[in-house]
Design brief:
It is a single chain. The protein has six helices and five strands, in the order αββαβαααββα. The protein has about 190 residues and is mostly helical. The chain has a three-stranded antiparallel beta sheet with strand order 3-5-4. Strand 1 and strand 2 form a beta hairpin. The longest helix is centred in the first third of the chain and has 30 residues.
């Protein structure tokens, strides 16, 4: 019995030291080399409120660009998609509701022109970006609500266009950064 218990205890203690001290220490040390020391990318607005630029935010006010829908209600504690396929009846009802809501707030838009990213959630549910088309299609609504020339809104959109990382993937726009700068337009 001593022959089985002693090696088990040694393995348990060694695993605890390796997995609870050494490995987290290595990950922490690597994080210290990143620009924000592992704290994520934090943005502070003019009112002193802090946001994480790499986590999607919920914007539903008509004076702001709307974010991509979230399957986890923008809760960064647990990311995830809906796990419902494109022919799932519940999912289709959800997407139809999102389309109808988008149309109510953007009546000048042709339903066929709504980009998919405006009515479907990302795989993580926390995507902070929308497509260029997703931003452009909201410009008319925002210009009307804010009484700002649509040309200024379109110029702001173009100034926030991010090129694909390493030349792969679509161009995109960070909604949080765009909305923070939108508040500074006169």
């Amino acid at each position: 019995m001593k022959k089985e218990i002693l090696p088990s205890l040694v393995l348990t203690v060694a695993s605890m030291i390796l997995l609870c001290v050494v490995y987290p220490g290595i990950i922490w040390a690597i994080a210290q080399l990143s620009p924000n020391k592992g704290d994520g990318y934090v943005i502070k607005d003019v009112k002193g409120k802090y946001y994480y630029e790499n986590i999607g935010q919920n914007f539903t006010d008509d004076k702001y660009f709307w974010s991509r829908p979230s399957a986890v209600n923008y809760n960064a504690n647990g990311s995830g998609g809906s796990n419902k396929g494109p022919d799932n009846p519940d999912y289709l009802i959800l997407v139809k509701g999102r389309i109808d809501s988008f149309m109510v707030h953007n009546p000048d838009v042709n339903k066929a022109n709504i980009p998919a990213d405006m009515v479907t959630a990302s795989g993580s549910g926390l995507d902070p970006h929308i497509s260029m088309q997703g931003a452009e299609i909201q410009a008319t609504r925002i210009a009307k609500v804010r009484s700002i020339d649509k040309g200024k809104i379109e110029a702001l959109i173009k100034s926030h266009l991010e090129k694909p990382m390493y030349g792969m993937g679509p161009e995109r726009i960070n909604v949080l950064k765009l909305n923070l700068d939108l508040d500074n337009i006169k």
